[in-house]
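Check out one such.
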Amino acid sequence: MVDSYTLYSVILVTVLLFNCIIVTLCPELTDPTHGSVLPPDELTVGSVATYVCETGYKLCERCVNSRTCQQDASWSDQMPVCQGMYPCPTNP
């Protein structure tokens, strides 16, 4: 059985021998309801996408406003949710 270190070494040597570049790409992101995503120029590892909400909406309290493309080709965190902002009721 081949362990992960040996497999990594074989892949690394193969890449070096053939002068290949392996690029990990994350999938394109979709806009949240009542908001939009400002995608990075590239969808490569380390790229950051930022989210904004439409006027009258804000990101939920536990939501993040950005996500990062990770080594496993997934985006960090969950897509944020834009919630409506309602004015506080006035006292009569």
